[in-house]
Design goal:
Helix content is 27%, strand content 16%.
């Protein structure tokens, strides 16, 4: 085996008849000894290992050496610059990570802030939406199509959520009742963001208010604040009906109950219903219950809600709801869009609600007097005007 030593101004290289090895730069002219069983490994920190490709033949008299490796000082400078760049990159990535976490936390709080001041950890439970066989059998008994429209009624004091469904005659009947696991606050409407009150009033649920990926299993938005709430300056957001059995500001159901409630709403939308009316009451709107809360400052508001409840009881159909003069108007006689803060058009209050040919199928509802109007207050009546002024002062 032969070694040939090349000494040029730019490179030094040892060439063997069987291999070629890069030699590290030497300051002197000391002989280089290489034992064939123990070839030195190149310094990978400063010098890349070249890809030699095909080996030169043993009889080659000249060997071309690769370009000279960068000097030690240059390597040091490059290493320092590289370390600086790496440090900056790490700091930027840490800042980006912190910023991303802050944004995620803010969005999570915003998404749940209206419903609760507590941030709930997302559940990993597999969500299912189902309408159970007993409920389907009840539909057959009540002469209802599975995809027929529905209506939801909520009673705080009784902790009950009811699902009503339209039968083949076009009238609504009670399909099923579900216990409310928890609602926060007291009887009375929600007034401002953060008061931890669950809303009361007449709301619409649209398909885009459904949330199958809620952190509380399944959920849909109640639609608070509606036009009436906004006319009185009430604030709040993300007031939901959801599973999870815990809430501050929402109506919380058990996951088991929410599976079917969500399923019924979803099937109604798939059947062509554009919006589901949600009626949220402090209690069942009977004269007896109102009398038992006679001293409550919310009585004028609850009497207004009772007018809407009575309209539904009498006709067995969801009432049309309008807002003008900062009050609800049910089944208005005048068509069109109304300014919630402007005076109501003349003649809007003339529609009677006791025009239904059949009595209501809600056993708990009280009888509705003949020729009773659908409105909550008549502004031409001095007593009604006084109630209206009192309502504005409170709400």
């Amino acid at each position: 085996m032969r070694f040939r030593t090349l000494s040029t101004p730019s490179d030094r290289r040892l060439v063997s008849t069987t291999d070629q090895v890069l030699a590290r730069r030497h300051t002197g002219h000391l002989p280089v000894r290489i034992h064939m069983g123990h070839l030195p490994a190149p310094h990978t920190e400063h010098l890349p290992v070249p890809h030699t490709g095909h080996l030169p033949s043993p009889n080659m008299d000249h060997v071309l050496a690769p370009p000279e490796a960068p000097s030690t000082c240059a390597n040091v400078r490059v290493g320092k610059n590289s370390n600086v760049r790496v440090g900056k990159t790490l700091r930027l990535s840490q800042i980006a990570s912190v910023f991303a976490k802050a944004c995620f936390f803010a969005l999570l709080v915003a998404g749940l802030g209206g419903c609760s001041s507590v941030v709930y950890a997302p559940k990993t439970t597999v969500r299912t939406v189902t309408v159970r066989s007993a409920t389907l059998k009840q539909m057959e008994t009540l002469n209802m199509d599975r995809a027929a429209p529905i209506l939801i009624r909520i009673y705080k004091e009784e902790s009950t959520l009811e699902v009503w469904k339209q039968d083949r005659n076009g009238r609504f009947a009670l399909l099923n009742s579900y216990p409310i696991c928890k609602f926060s606050g007291n009887l009375g409407p929600k007034l401002v963001q953060g008061d931890r009150q669950a809303p009361e009033g007449f709301y619409d649920i649209a398909p885009d208010q459904m949330n199958p990926n809620s952190s509380e299993y399944l959920a849909f938005n109640t639609g608070f604040p509606n036009a009436f709430d906004r006319s009185l300056g009430r604030t709040g957001s993300f007031l939901m009906v959801h599973g999870g059995c815990r809430s501050v500001g929402c109506y919380a159901m058990t996951d088991y109950a929410m599976e079917e409630i969500y399923g019924l709403v979803d099937e109604a939308f798939k059947g062509g219903q554009e919006k589901v009316q949600l009626q949220a009451f402090p209690f069942r709107m009977t004269a007896q219950n109102l009398a038992s809360h006679a001293g409550d400052p919310n009585i004028p508001f609850w009497e207004m809600l009772k007018a809407g409840s009575d309209a539904f009881v009498a006709t067995e159909r969801p009432p049309r709801v309008a807002v003008c003069d900062r009050r609800y108007v049910f089944n208005p006689a005048v068509a069109g869009e109304f300014d919630p803060t402007a005076p109501c058009p003349i003649g809007i209050d003339s529609t009677p609600i006791a025009s239904a040919s059949q009595p209501s199928r809600e056993a708990s509802a009280s009888a509705v007097p003949q020729n009773m109007g659908t409105i909550a207050y008549r502004t031409a009546d001095p007593i009604a005007q006084k109630i209206n002024e009192s309502l504005r002062g409170i709400y």
